[in-house]
Design a protein that fits this description.
119 residues; mainly beta; nine-stranded antiparallel sheet; 9 strands; 43% strand; globular
């Protein structure tokens, strides 16, 4: 998945888990702050029932979200406690991660690598 989509997912997952918003998120790979809504695209976010939506099997124990941007780029995101995972349907890339304090760790399975962000 693209670095912008990773940053968007990290920001949304971090915001949902921490229950707070920020004007920017620091991308450790790019070594700079990314402004939300400018550098970090903000898709529409809606909740889906575990059995429905996104054609992905969802856990009823998770909060399940669907992220759609203005080009109908579709991402499934599930959050449980400090953990999250999902799939970017555009790149067919599965991801998972966690939030500890102000740090979001995201593993992109397609890239086989970790990416780190900070609120």
């Amino acid at each position: 998945m693209s670095e912008d989509m990773r940053a968007t997912i990290a920001y949304i997952a971090g915001s949902l888990i921490k229950d707070e918003k920020s004007a920017a998120i620091y991308d450790r790979d790019r070594e700079r702050f990314l402004n939300v809504g400018v550098d970090v695209p903000m898709p529409r976010v809606s909740m889906h029932d575990p059995e429905k939506g996104c054609q992905v099997k969802r856990s009823p124990d998770c909060s399940n979200f669907c992220l759609l941007d203005d080009k109908d780029h579709h991402v499934c995101l599930s959050v449980q406690g400090r953990l999250f995972d999902g799939i970017d349907h555009d790149s067919l890339s599965h991801f998972s991660g966690h939030v500890i304090d102000n740090v979001v760790s995201l593993y992109d399975y397609r890239k086989s690598d970790y990416f780190f962000y900070q609120f």
